[in-house]
Amino acid sequence: MARQINVHLKASIDRSYQIAINPKVLADMASVLSRKWMGRSVFIITDSIVSGLYGQRLQNDLTDSGFEVILVDFPSGEQSKNASVIHALHTQLLTNSIRRNSLIIALGGGVVGDVAGYVAATILRGVKFIQVPTTLLSQVDSSVGGKVGIDHPLGKNLIGAFHQPSAVFIDPTVLKTLSEKEFRNGLAEVVKIAAALDISFFSFIERNARKITRTNVKLLSEIIRRSVALKAAVVEKDEHESGIRKVLNLGHTIGHALEAASNYSLKHGEAVSLGIVAESRLAVKLGLLREVDYKRVVKLLTTLKLPTRIPQIKNKTKFFRTLGTDKKSEGAQNMFVLLNGIGKSAIGVEVPMELIARAIFQRNGA
Ligand SMILES: NC(=O)c1ccc[n+]([C@@H]2O[C@H](COP(=O)([O-])OP(=O)(O)OC[C@H]3O[C@@H](n4cnc5c(N)ncnc54)[C@H](O)[C@@H]3O)[C@@H](O)[C@H]2O)c1
Ligand SMILES: [Zn+2]
Fold first, then answer.
1. For residue 300, how far is its CA from the centre of ligand 1 (angstroms)?
2. In this predicted structure, which of 1-5, 45-49, 137-141, 324-328 has the lowest mean pLDDT?
3. Nearest 10 degrees: CA dihedral of 235, 188, 292, 282?
4. Which helix (H) or strand (E) is 141 found in, with range?
5. Percent of the chain with pLDDT over 70
């Protein structure tokens, strides 16, 4: 008698998707969706700010096109990335009779994308969803790649899933209503992508740094297109982050620890900017990066008005604890992604805690 049964599972579904980037995306969305999704109920999940700015209009457009649409929102901000918000959304969607063939639209910044994506990944064991990112950070980074999830009191983004969107609709004109601070935040992820992967893109940003504004739609479209293309190419090679996708964590190992140690008073992009600086410093100390390239990175972040001087860390215990629990660290040693030139990165570099402490606290004059 056979003592073992093998379950053969081969990936059989093509989960490829398209990313549309143009200034008419939002206005045209209802007619584009009606071609493919008509007959399904639609749930727009957004936050309390984006709802009034773009959510109600999208709901009206979709309703006019013949869709049955429910719009739900939750309070804007990182503190909404928690289990009780997820539970409340599950309840709202279930009470409104969501079905497995319904469509969820994540309309908002990275927080909405992560939360709505996680709801889509989990409700009824997974329904399809579309990303409509409305912050620069979400347009260049978080809306592509399928990582969704929430924070846990023990650390950021520790609970989640991989759930790829069925499409991504990026409209750079929505950035005109974004605050200057949030806009700058997104630029940190742009610098991360360019520094980690593509020196010619990095030089392009250097050349245009002073012209990058929320309303320069032409330049923004180019920056978003190049960032997304680079990220998509990495995701195609390594969807579940077992190798090359880790390059996108540049600046994030220290960045996350700084974010947590500040009790999230530092915005994600600010923390990433500081993380890129600190990790580049480590790269110089380890002989991977030339001092001149380190200075180039710092100069670009400064020109883009991003922070480069690490503020006093009050909660050092939390900083080091987060470094330890960061989901990217494997085992006791901290595995870093470090630049070994602009546009080139080394993955899985072990960095002794002592060196990290010196790189971080020296900059505070300690
Ligand atoms: N899943 C991923 O791959 C990935 C990658 C990077 C970052 N993230 C996550 O993304 C989150 C940060 O995203 P974020 O910076 O977009 O923050 P966010 O979603 O909180 O948006 C920032 C603020 O801007 C407001 N807003 C959004 N769009 C607007 C618009 N067009 N006009 C005016 N206001 C607008 C929001 O209401 C919010 O108050 C973090 O939680 C981070 O962990 C995820
Ligand atoms: Zn990030």
1. 22
2. 324-328
3. -70
4. none
5. 95
Count other Cβ atoms within 10 Å, centred on residue 273: 31
CA dist., res. 208 & res. 186, Å (int): 16
Is 256 a residue of the active site?
yes
Q: What share of the chain is helix, strand, coil (3-state, %, to 5)?
A: 55, 15, 30
**Cα 223 from Cα 249, distance rounded (Å):** 19
Return the ligand 1 atom nearest residue 49 CA: 37
pTM here is 0.94
Give the 3-state DSSP-derived string for 25-42, with helices as H, strands as E and coil as C: HHHHHHHHHHHHHCCCCE
Q: What pLDDT, on a 0 to 100 scale, did the predictor assign at position 1?
A: 66
Six token digits for residue 82: 């928690």
CA of residue 180 relative to chain centroid, distance: 18
Degrees to nearest 5, angle at CA 242 with 7 and 263: 120
Interval 111-128: pLDDT, tens: 999 999 999 999 999 999
Q: Which residues contact 223 (CB under 8 A, 6 or more apart)?
A: 140, 190, 205, 212
Q: What is the pLDDT of residue 174?
A: 98
User: Which residues does a 6 A CB cutoff place in the pocket of ligand 1?
Assistant: 47, 49-50, 53, 76-78, 81, 108-112, 114, 134-135, 137-138, 141-142, 145, 147, 157, 174, 177-178, 182, 185, 268
Q: What is the rounded distance in angstroms from the CA atom of residue 242 to the CA atom of residue 346?
A: 14
Q: Looking at beta carbons, which pairs linking 249-252 to residues 24 or more positions away fall under 8 Å?
A: 249/328, 249/337, 250/192, 250/195, 250/196, 250/276, 250/279, 250/337, 250/338, 250/339, 250/345, 251/188, 251/192, 251/275, 251/276, 251/279, 252/192, 252/328, 252/337
Q: Which atom of ligand 1 is nearest to the CA of 144?
A: 3
Distances in whole angstroms, Cα of residue 284 to Cα of each of 28, 133, 203, 212, 291: 48, 35, 20, 29, 6
* Mean pLDDT, range 283-292, rounded to an integer: 97
Measured distance CA(278)–CA(345) in Å, rounded: 15
Structure tokens at 13: 């579904």
